[in-house]
Amino acid sequence: MRYFLSALFAVLLLAIGGLVYLLKSHPVIQPIDGADGNPQSSIRLLFLGTSSMAWTDDTSTWLIDGFFSRPAIEKVIFTRLNVDKPRVDEVITEVFRRLNMPEVLSGIVVAHSHYDHSMDAPYLAMQYGGRLVGSESTWQIAKGQDLPALQMDLQAEQGQVSFGNFDIRLQESAHAPTGFTGGFNNKPVFLPAHALQFKEGVSYSFLVSHPSMGSAPFALIQPSAGFIPGQNKDVRVNTVLLGMGGLGKLSDEYIAEYWQEMVLNTQAKTVYLIHWDDFTLPLIQEGKIKPLKSMPTALDDFPRSLELLKMFSKRDEVTLHILNAWEMVYF
Ligand SMILES: [Zn+2]
Q1: How far is CA 18 from the centre of its chain?
Q2: Does position 34 have pLDDT exceeding 80, yes or no?
Q3: How far apart are CA 264 and CA 318, in angstroms?
Q4: CATH number at residue 23
Q5: How confident is the model at residue 33 (pLDDT cuts 50, 70, 90)?
Q6: How far is the CA of 225 from the centre of ligand 1 (A)?
């Protein structure tokens, strides 16, 4: 019996080792040249992996998500998660430095309530100011971290917020059908918490406008690779920041419909790919900034979804660009 148990234990260890190995194997992606922009423009964003990004117009700075803890895969699988405050501070300090802006936030909008979008936002709002904008499920995460209610801007399925001259419209969208979707946080999510305790809540897409870019929105951010058919029927934008997470495991038809809804229906000219990265790897390590790696093939197939999108972009004459971490986009 003891022999049997040792053998079972050895097999289990091997299986876990194999799984961890698979989850650390990243397909290599060739970058695409071609996206330009106007480096003279004061409207710019700094991309920070997943759907995290910092926007500024030289007056106000605001974030989408601000997920910077990016705990390692072993921690995500085997432990309960917490905000990695030194790491978050290191990243946001570098963000302000690169944007050449004071260390003050006007606000943070949270795409949905999974940990890779929502976990660090309450801490960032408490440390650097601004309102935290999100659904009831995100509010429960903020409550779990003692964010003052006055700093919470609770939104329903549709909404609108202003950070300085920026206007951000929230519209209900859908999460990529990954198997980890659905559910609401109905009570405070106290940390540490397991990744699965962060329920999705409402999945938003964001439409950004700014008076210097005209009165209509100029950019659409689709954090998760899901959609509600017809969600963009009244939307026309120049630029789409397109979430890719999980897309590589979905059917050709699904990927084509996603492209149709997000890019063709909005008549966008430029598409930046976001949320394609392995978010269990840090943005800064030992003081050095790190380029992103794509999701392990066990979880996603980014080379496949990328091939399809390259084909569509050529066919439809749309400029396609894979955003890397710490890359600046000018509008
Ligand atoms: Zn998610």
Answers
A1: 28
A2: no
A3: 9
A4: 3.60.15.10
A5: low
A6: 9
Task: State the pLDDT at residue 28.
Answer: 79
Quick one: DSSP state of residue 203?
P
Q: For tokens 């100011």, what's the residue?
A: 129
What separation in Å is there between the alpha carbon of 114 and the centre of ligand 1? 5
Q: Alpha carbon of 317 to those of 88, 257, 263, 267, 309: distances in Å?
A: 38, 17, 11, 11, 11
User: How many independent structural domains does the chain possess?
Assistant: 1
Residue that is written with structure tokens 């194997």 in the block: 25
Residues 67-109 pLDDT 10s: 999 999 999 999 999 999 999 999 999 999 999 999 999 999 9
Mean pLDDT of 122-139: 98
Residue 130 alpha carbon to ligand 1 centre in Å: 23
CB neighbours of residue 134 within 10 Å: 31
What gap in Å lies between CA 311 and CA 308, rounded to an integer?
Answer: 5
- Identify which of 210, 83, 202, 192 has the alpha carbon closest to the alpha carbon of residue 154: 202
Q: Which two tokens stand for residue 276?
A: 């394609």
Using the mean position of ligand 1's atoms as its centre, give its distance from the Cα of residue 288 in Å: 28
Name residues whose C-beta falls within 8 Å of residue 198's C-beta, 6 or more positions apart in sequence: 113, 114, 115, 118, 119, 141, 185, 189
What is the mean predicted confidence (pLDDT) over 34-49?
Answer: 83
Ion ligand 1, residue ranges at CB < 5 A: 114
Query: 226: CA distance to ligand 1 center in Å?
Result: 10
Distance 200 CA to ligand 1 centre (A): 6
Token representation of residue 34: 């071609």
- Residues with Cβ within 8 Å of 57's Cβ and at least 6 positions away in sequence, in order, are 42, 43, 164, 165, 166, 210, 212
E strands, the chain, in order: 44-47, 53-56, 61-64, 107-109, 131-134, 152-154, 159-163, 166-172, 204-209, 219-222, 239-243, 270-274, 284-285, 288-289, 319-322, 328-330
Å from CA of 287 to ligand 1 middle: 28
Q: Which residue has the tokens 């859908």?
A: 174
Domain of 49? 2-330
Residue 79 DSSP SS3: coil
